[in-house]
Amino acid sequence: MTVAPKQLANAVRALSMDAVQAANSGHPGMPMGMADAATVLFTQYLKFDPQAPKWADRDRFVLSAGHGSMLIYSLLHLTGYARPTMADIRNFRQLHSPCAGHPENFELAGVEATTGPLGSGFATAVGMAIAERHLNATFGDDLVDHRTWVIAGDGCLMEGINHEAVGLAGHLGLGRLIVLWDDNRITIDGSVDLSSSENVLGRYDASGWHTIACDGHDPADVARAIDAAIADPRPSLIACRTVIGYGAPNKQGTSATHGSPLGGDEVAAARAALGWDSAPFEIPADIAAAWAEAGARGAPVRAEWEKRLAAHAQGAEFTRRMEGRLPVNAAAAEHIQALLANPQKVATRKASENALEALTAAIPEMVGGSADLTGSNNTKTKIQQPLTAKDYSGRYIYYGIREFGMAAAMNGMALHGGVIPYGGTFLVFSDYCRPAIRLSALQRTRVVYVMTHDSIGLGEDGPTHQPIEHLMSLRVMPNLDVYRPADAVETAECWALSLEKADGPSLLALSRQNLPQVRTGADENLSAKGAYRLRGATAARKAVIVASGSEVEIALGVAERLEAAGIGADVVSMPCWSRFDAQTPEYRAEILPADVLKISIEAGTTIGWERYVGLDGLRFGIDGFGASAPAPALYEYFGLTPDAIAPKILAALGN
Amino acid sequence: MTVAPKQLANAVRALSMDAVQAANSGHPGMPMGMADAATVLFTQYLKFDPQAPKWADRDRFVLSAGHGSMLIYSLLHLTGYARPTMADIRNFRQLHSPCAGHPENFELAGVEATTGPLGSGFATAVGMAIAERHLNATFGDDLVDHRTWVIAGDGCLMEGINHEAVGLAGHLGLGRLIVLWDDNRITIDGSVDLSSSENVLGRYDASGWHTIACDGHDPADVARAIDAAIADPRPSLIACRTVIGYGAPNKQGTSATHGSPLGGDEVAAARAALGWDSAPFEIPADIAAAWAEAGARGAPVRAEWEKRLAAHAQGAEFTRRMEGRLPVNAAAAEHIQALLANPQKVATRKASENALEALTAAIPEMVGGSADLTGSNNTKTKIQQPLTAKDYSGRYIYYGIREFGMAAAMNGMALHGGVIPYGGTFLVFSDYCRPAIRLSALQRTRVVYVMTHDSIGLGEDGPTHQPIEHLMSLRVMPNLDVYRPADAVETAECWALSLEKADGPSLLALSRQNLPQVRTGADENLSAKGAYRLRGATAARKAVIVASGSEVEIALGVAERLEAAGIGADVVSMPCWSRFDAQTPEYRAEILPADVLKISIEAGTTIGWERYVGLDGLRFGIDGFGASAPAPALYEYFGLTPDAIAPKILAALGN
């Protein structure tokens, strides 16, 4: 290269400050501060090919400090990705530009993960690094041999999830994970000293990481640190000492550069200080050529890899997994037929385990785990061995008491590809990992959340552990399918649907308590419709009772009492709102007719059920917190029994 | 004392294993493992008086490992608290027993915090320790001079929130916070080695803590460690090396003792191993007497303190604050009158700041803060100085990028008493602190969450930062009042309501963008009703438009267009669902009449609005994720403008 690294980095700086200025919105400080280090990474180390952004053996790069999105947009453009174009960058933060405020992997092929919520990108990268090692252990060095790189800021490190991510990565010895920390000593509120006194490297040392510091503005020093990180078998944190907004002579080193445009005068001053003479959005030809050359490094490497893939005995299987195609299998169908032949009264968490036994045997890319509730979530199957630092081929991860870290890692595994992750905790602790669930939904990752102990039916652990608002609060999240199966058959159906959904997350809410098998036929997957008539009225229909999960049994008991009183009653099992909402108006009207009293029963908040029972319907549920007692006593206490509910329906019908 | 400490501890062990056995449910391992250390703490160090559980200057003790609830129930009973009685303990985990599965402060006066969700108790204790130092700085050693103690398990330390709590406590130098870590090397899934390789003490060292280890079964060694902790000016972590289920000869040291009854045989074997001859729920007289003596230590200390309080110049003010009575003040009312005289078009986050200027001046117990978004949340007022390790008298906390830690600390401050905490972040990051918000709601703490950037109206930051499902997901949480004010007047009203609510949390969802002042009169606090008619139809009423926050302006624009077409339309501003639901049926029917087309407009999920507009109503909102663009472009893109909405209403009305 004949162009000095500083000039390459200045191209990033100029694009960043100019795009933010044009948008009159954005974050110039981070891209300008980390331009030197990122230039070293992208020109000398990162393995990628802009012509094949999804090349399976590329290095993964995650900009965890997502607010500095102009950094990655600049790098992708300069290294030769088809998008973003310069026109895209000129449209930074405008409607329909792929250069959104924060990097979004559904907008740009070169963006590996949607970031912005602090700490999440880092924790997602841990999952990518797990997937890499797991697939390496399965398919060997010829097919899988890459690194995961992260640029993170102080916010990423201060967030709680960082502790979980660091602990998990250190424990699993993920030596191919290398984090460049933008150690600029500035947060939005001002100096880091305002809110933190932590010895960051000491903390990482204590968690089994390799740590090293460098001058983030000295390319040789950055390279020295990266070389040391690569050489060390532990995951690495590189503290890149930087000046936020580097190059802006009057504002650099202050929080003023963090989240606001520099302003026209300061942009001009920065041009002068950096010796950058080009007009906004113009890159001198020699610098553009040097960047393009750096971007072309990967093509021959990829060509060699393609040859190895073509010759590899497991090549087709590897490709299948990376493309996210399930193997042809009848595991779910056969399992359901066995249930119909031999009905089971089990908790749906146990039914889930039974389904998983069949599914994990048939689908080798399924990697399970639990946040330290393996025996309660019933997430581990006999075929699964632990995935450990000594043996990455295992398909079960003991995530520890790290719900959020688990969920973020699962996103990373799904984004990496080749793995279908699922993981368990109690439904009430969906709150702990909610930000990662949201990122599953936003990025449409194929992740399955196994959330057991889904109501007061868990009993004695009491209100801190009993979900009330959780089902509803998750149902309102876009793109997330929330399933609450009523029995073993529905549980198997919902598992099948969750795995088939390649373009988004699913969440299974499962009971702790035993439930009778209410389904006696299964010619088709009825859960796929979201809701269906489980039992038709025998007398003239005057009521339709809608329930989910453990309350379907209660609804059947209610219907029995109503029918005994001459009132015809349908029972509708509704395992999944979002799927029901996607059915035709005709089907929905057939299941929930307009002219009949409709009743909902669910052991959770009643707010929201007006959607199906209307303002004139009856809603049975729990609108306060739970209590500590055996489950049957709680159902009675909260009035969720056939004996308590049936008379109220009869009264509403004037009987 | 003539009774050996081991025998005192064995009383705790026996009660714990017997209660769990009787309930056939619960966690014996932790109480049995930590009985020795807890006995040292409660008999020699903890400052408390069972006759006055709410004595203001008592030490605070938080059982962060709340699953070991029998530990605290045993200790409270043995030291002489009125509750739990032995009958309560016999009814452990049964309906209506105050001895719930996890410790609940609303069930027992001696329980300082509701715990169970791992890590939360620890982080709550940090807030208690902050409140203690703040009040000490305000009222002096004579009135405020106590410690905060925590017993925590591996789960508490592994959770992400621990990092935030540890960072905050270390930064603020909370030397009166002492944590006893039950270092038993066991989690639910098995050995800690399964999921963690962390050097825990090293991590705490790196965060500015004092760390020390001891043999958790040697009372003298525990006392030595506690003495060292007291002597050190930093917050302390004491690693108590223990055996889980200590005393159960065949199961101790294994995860089998964690969350299940020991079983009759093992209970009998433990009795033999411990030399405990008494029948279940019987305590030998000498041991009971020794415990009672230990419990009586505090009475004379309290008597001295009561004398000092009575003589103290600030005694009345201190008592007022500790009792949670607001000072008599007209700050909110005067501020609202000023707004009516001089209407303001400002963002409601700015309106909140303006209200806070008046309120913080009038209410000295208000302590504000933000999770590193001070200038965006507008949470700091001119009167507030930073609360720092060098000056605890400050009333503003730079919480750092620690939303969850902030929320948990606010719970701790509110539980401590004498402080009314409020803190800010972006509404989308309510997800990060949701478990703590739930504990605010469950414990009914007076905490005010200031959540700004409450919709797509934040603009360019895009979907990762734009709340969609958040308002609804928070509204379904019991006991939480979610406010979304429409203008500066409503913002002031909602602030007044939030502060007046002594028995629970409030959350303010505030706009980034400017909003016109739509209220022209304020003889009463109309937000108190949750919803009210802001504008009455002038033509014959055929439509009622309900909206909240920034969409009220849009609703007014829609109504204008409808009226221009001869369609009478009410506009209802609905800042708070829960308050509206608490109104009389007559009021609700008056505001939302049955026989008129009802329309909701809110820049978030439409799921749930059927509650007010019915199945025949129209719901305008956003049921997918947002996008990155300037706010006006987004409102247009998502069809949330008067020009887009009015024609749809006209069409629905057949016009």
From TrEMBL, chains A, B:
Family in the record: Belongs to the transketolase family.
Record's GO cellular component terms: cytosol
Gene Ontology MF: a single term: transketolase activity
Record-annotated site: Important for catalytic activity: H27, H258
Gene Ontology biological process terms, A to Z: pentose-phosphate shunt, non-oxidative branch
UniProt-listed Enzyme Commission number(s): 2.2.1.1
Assembly and interaction partners: Homodimer.
Cofactor: Ca(2+); thiamine diphosphate; Mg(2+); Co(2+)
Positions contributing to thiamine diphosphate binding: H67, G116, P117, L118, G155, N184, H258, F429
InterPro entries: THDP-binding, Transketo_C/PFOR_II, Transketolase-like_C_2, Transketolase-like_Pyr-bd, Transketolase_bac-like, Transketolase_CS, Transketolase_fam, Transketolase_N
SUPFAM superfamilies linked: Thiamin diphosphate-binding fold (THDP-binding), TK C-terminal domain-like
Active site location: E403 (proton donor)
Alphabetically ordered keywords of this record: Magnesium, Metal-binding, Thiamine pyrophosphate, Transferase
Keyword check for Metal-binding: yes
Protein name (database record): Transketolase
Binding site for substrate: H27, H258, R349, S376, H453, D461, H465, R512
Domain of life according to the entry: Bacteria
Cofactor mode of binding and number, as noted: Binds 1 thiamine pyrophosphate per subunit. During the reaction, the substrate forms a covalent intermediate with the cofactor.
Ligand binding (Mg(2+)): D154, N184, I186
Transketolase-like pyrimidine-binding domain span: 346-517
Reactions it catalyzes: D-sedoheptulose 7-phosphate + D-glyceraldehyde 3-phosphate = aldehydo-D-ribose 5-phosphate + D-xylulose 5-phosphate
Top enzyme category: transferase
